[in-house]
Amino acid sequence: MLQYVLIWCFLVLMTAQSDAPEFLLTPLIRNVTEGDNVTLECPARGNPAPAISWHTNNDTLSTTENQTTLLIIGVSQSKNYSCTATNRNGTILQTFNVNVKKKSATFTNQSKTACPLEFIPKRVVERHGASVSVICRPTTTSAEPDIIGWEAPIGLWNLNMPDNKSATWNVEKFEDWTFEPVCFGTFSDQQCSVTLPITLYKTPDTVSISVQNHSGPLQEGRRYTLQCDVFNVAPLAALTVSWLWKGEIIQTHTYDDHLTKTPENVSSTWEITAFRNYSNEVITCLTILDPKQGGPSQQVNTSAVFKVIVHYAPKFTDEYDSVEVVTGGNVSFGCSAEGNPPPEVKCNYPVAINARATTRGRQHTVSITRATSANGGIYNCVATNEVGTATWQTTLTITPLDHTTGVNYYLILVVILVIIIIMILCYYFCTKKHGRYSLISARNNDVPLHNL
Hints:
A hairpin with a 7-residue loop joins β14 (about 155-160) and β15. The protein has helices at about 1-15, 405-435; strands at about 20-25, 30-35, 40, 45, 50-55, 60, 70, 80-85, 90-100, 115-120, 125, 130-140, 145-150, 155-160, 165-170, 180-185, 190-195, 200, 205-210, 220, 225-235, 240-245, 250-255, 265-275, 280-290, 300, 305, 310-315, 320-325, 330-340, 345-350, 355-360, 365-370, 375-385, 390-400. By secondary structure, it is mainly beta. The relative contact order is 0.08. The strands form ten sheets. It has a five-stranded mixed β-sheet, with no helix packed on it. It has a five-stranded mixed β-sheet with strand order 20-28-30-33-32, with no helix packed on it.
């Protein structure tokens, strides 16, 4: 008996000191320039100490055992790097997003003299189809043009009175994605021109999330690639796509190297390993279109939430290796299984009229009244869903009643009752014989004593 107590205490102590993995740092979005070196850190704790592994895309990186720091030499393209921490109590995953920006090209102004014309406003950033109005004028009053005007087959322009030294270009509905009007001026028989920078933008028609090459619920332990599709948006260089998990941004994708001005469809991907505790979590894809690079002009769109549903095989939560009851006693025992989808539980056990089985939700209970030897045996239960099957088994032992012990108890009870009865009778007779008497002086008369 002492041996079993010690084993139980040891198991409780081991369980109390066992911890699931936990990351010590939050993964960051790293924006770097092409050719830079990047260091990613993924420290984790747990008991026992978790094993660390690194992945990118669907490949496992070759690193030393339990390497918590990953050094990337000379990054050349944007990638997602995943760090996994595992011990016997579970597995957790966090993702690092490394965004690589191309090195900016260097331009030189080969013209000896700048054209002394300017625009009001200096550049145009408008929604596709909006109206546009821009003034072209000399930069200083000392450099007034002899002639000023616009080369713009789209829209209308006119000279501004009274001096005709500036010109305004107007378009009621500007829809040409690539057109850039030119303002020209003639200064002492020399002509120069400047081009108006125009950016038209368009918010996405739709933003949606799907799983690549998969439909339906995710299965526990498998790795999936989620895809956020952004349809018909421009310009891509002003677009940022972010993934939100539990309300926090965990990955961001930019398109700085896309120089096209016309609307396009783009996608961003994020890899995830399905764990059962991810069920019912929601993922959202967020797009920010920022053509003016800051300020209230940012256009924000979000996808419909993607609800994570993870299917996993059944597992019995209440397990008894054996159950014991004396003959004539009552006993109840049962099992419950969890899984997704909820498993179907079926049990096989010795059939008897005093045995009754009930099922409430995922709990299956067997109740036996006035147990007999016929109730003894092995009780089996099987839980099944579309992912897998789990089995459960317990042995019911019927212990015969110790009749000797029962007779001794009855004998002791009879003796106690007899003693109580004798004591009651003695008390009764003693009270009956004992009377009350009065004494009279003998000098008067010889009177015998009488009971009163």
